[in-house]
Amino acid sequence: MGWYERLGQWSDEHRFGVDLTVTLVLAVVFVPASAAFSSGGASGVGTSAGWAAFWALLILAPLPWRRSHPLASSVTVYSVALVHLLAGYLVIFPADFAVLVALYSVTVYGPRWAHRTAIVASLVGAVVLGIALGLLSGRLADLATMVFFTSAFGGMTFLAVWAFGLVRRSRRETIAALVDRAERLEVERDQQAQIATAAERARIAREMHDIVAHSLSVIIAQADGGRYAAANDPDAATRALTTVSETGRAALADMRRLLGVLRSEPPRPATSPTAAVGPGGTLALPSGRSPGTTLRPTTAGPSPYGPAGTDARSPSGGAAAALERAPQPDTADLESLVAQVRDSGMRVSFVRVGESRPLPPGAGLTVYRVCQEALTNVLKHAGPDPEVTVVVRWGATTLDLEVEDDGRGASTAAENRQDSRPGGYGVLGMRERAALFGGTVQVGPRAGGGFRVHLRIPVPPVPPAPRSAPAPASSGDTRPAPGPGHAHPPNPWAPPAPAPSGRMGPGRAGPTGAPGTTSPPPPPPA
């Protein structure tokens, strides 16, 4: 910003003080000059210096308010000019320049109708002044000449000042519009940041609730079952502890993956203390332990989350690290979710109706989380030994998920607490997830007992099957074409069909034993 812009900004901030100072300086010069100009008879017949000074002081008095109150200041200046013109003081020079200042001020700072009215009044005043000066000469020829020159000179002067004021007004409006736009953009940016922050916090809260609530419910159920079965069935207690360990690892991996997006720097690799290798491949204990005690690797059963007690950086312990880098679950993982809940001792049936197809990003996770929350609520509220049914129904344009149970916990609690709210944060999270994709969630007790959760979200329609033209039969092929009710027998050498879940199934080992490769079938014997 240059000195001129800074000076203009300072002048706008101190309008009355600056205008008052300028007016006082002009009054010191203009009032004596106007009195001297009128004493020679230039203002009209019978004029005096005292009255000229009075009119000059009166016409300059409203100028300190020309920017703070432009309309009132301009009306006062024009009124004083008209009154002293009718009083016989035709021109009070140079005090009458205040009329030009008033016209400029009302054009720049006043309303639109005010400056349009001011320019019309100025042009009319120029004509009236010409007529008055012509009548003062007493000759008709001088009247026409005086009216023409006075109107032309005064009109051009007023129009020039008005045009300059319009340019200044346009610049001020442009600057004000830019400043207002910048302020609105800044406010909108802050609002968008707040909205994004609130949405991200809600998403993290939903994920944390689903992960922690489901995992802890399974862990508590397994821990209670293992404690009761430890005395009579040690194998069942061992299986329960294994499920607790696997569920805890899965929850920890999900939590690390969720909280990893909040870190700005990559995680630092964990450093483990160096351990000496003892006899027989054992690991010597650190100092402070008995010299005869060593740590041996555990030989627990296989687990999909990697063996316990192994380092994630080792080849055998890479499953835990791979679990943290696994993609988010979707509809293809509902069967594994149901199997996990079934392992906790609950009777769960899983039904899939219709042809599954790819979903938009995030929609599969929504279906999975809603099913996970519904099964978690069954674990917590359905009572002892409930029977649960999970139905996934693929429609033409919708996907329906229904989770029903015949427990008595939810219906009894609803009957005992009629004034309770319909759901907690879990139900709220399910509805928020469904609303993100234009879906709905219906939650409530079933008739006759139990609870029901119904999710419906829109999905892309089923793509039409491509119509392939029939291939012409070869000359050596004498087999008849299959009729409407006949089909060729399946080819025993055809490669296996892909997995229905949409994921890549494990490839069969080829002749060289390389995993994931498929060897061509041998030719049939001649």
From TrEMBL:
The chain crosses the membrane at residues 20-38, 45-65, 77-106, 118-137, 143-167. It catalyses: ATP + protein L-histidine = ADP + protein N-phospho-L-histidine. Residues 290-301 have a biased composition (Polar residues). Keywords: ATP-binding, Kinase, Membrane, Nucleotide-binding, Phosphoprotein, Transferase, Transmembrane, Transmembrane helix, Two-component regulatory system. It is an enzyme of class 2 (transferase). Residues 458-469, 481-499 have a biased composition (Pro residues). The keyword Flavoprotein does not apply. Residues 262-331, 405-426, 458-526 are annotated as: Disordered. One of its GO terms (cellular component) is membrane. SUPFAM superfamilies: ATPase domain of HSP90 chaperone/DNA topoisomerase II/histidine kinase (SSF55874). GO terms for molecular function: ATP binding; phosphorelay sensor kinase activity; protein dimerization activity. Its EC number is 2.7.13.3. It comes from the Bacteria. Residues 362-461 form the Histidine kinase/HSP90-like ATPase domain. Signal peptide: none annotated. Gene3D superfamilies: 1.20.5.1930, Histidine kinase-like ATPase, C-terminal domain. This is histidine kinase. It comes from Cellulosimicrobium protaetiae.
